[in-house]
Protein: Glycosyltransferase family 2 protein
Organism: Empedobacter tilapiae
Amino acid sequence: MISICIPIYNFDVKPLVYELSKQISMQNNIEIIVIDDASDLYFQEINSELKDPFKFIQLKENIGRSKIRNLFLNYATQPYLLFLDCDGLVHHNPHFISNYLKTVKQNLDVVCGGRIYPEKCPNKNVSLNWKYGKKVESPAIIRSFMSNNFLIKRTVFESILFDETIRNYGHEDTLFGIELAKNNIQITIIDNSVFNAHLENNKTYLEKNISSLKNLNLLINSNKIKVEDFQYIKLLNFYLQLEKYRLTSIYSKFYSVFKQYIYSNLLSQNPNLTYFNLYKLGEFIRIKKESTTK
């Protein structure tokens, strides 16, 4: 009934796989498939311990976040695919699989279960990732598609694949969600979370957001995300309003004055999420401007 699909890159996925295995021990129509996207040798050796009944596929070359998800169609045998990021855990949720089985019986097209974070910040150096996750990405708050933990009908996935031109981190899930919406495919949000077991330090988290913004700009420039799609992305809604009232250059000047102060705050033990939004908007405008002047 369900093929559990877990792409890996430089992470020990065994704790997640073994817990999932416990939850499906009484089911004969659920399989676990793991594809390693050319991780470092250390992680390849760790995860290669996953033998039967699991399917473990080792790639020799890194193919990127989108293409590896599409690749699971070559190995999955069930009518539903459950995609999980390799850094999630489900130990806190003993009904994780049974909850998804209930949605299968309801014949839903796409179901997102969300993620949760530690109740307290585990380390001051990861405060931004933790705070953003707690305030923005919890299952009770999310209203749109998230790719870290979702179930999808095979037939739907075969008709709407991830864009394989997106290799690096950021917005492959945004584009996928937009395509679902354009095709009138309903996304159902349920509280069936994974525990986020890997928080990025503040500097790395900001760098990954820059990568994400560059991807977003490329998708716009290649016309894969059109102006009418901006409604699905909060950041682009703000940008569109600035453009409408010819305030983009004024905002850029404001941002250049306060950028260092904002950046310092986001690296601090108590980052301000409003500043984070200002940072992303300012950096997006900068990236967009640089791309048009090259």
User: Anything to note?
Assistant: The chain has a mean pLDDT of 94. The beta strands are 2-8, 30-36, 55-58, 80-84, 88-89, 110-112, 115-116, 149-153, 187-189, 194-196. The chain has two domains: 2-199, 203-293. The chain is about 45% helix and 15% strand.
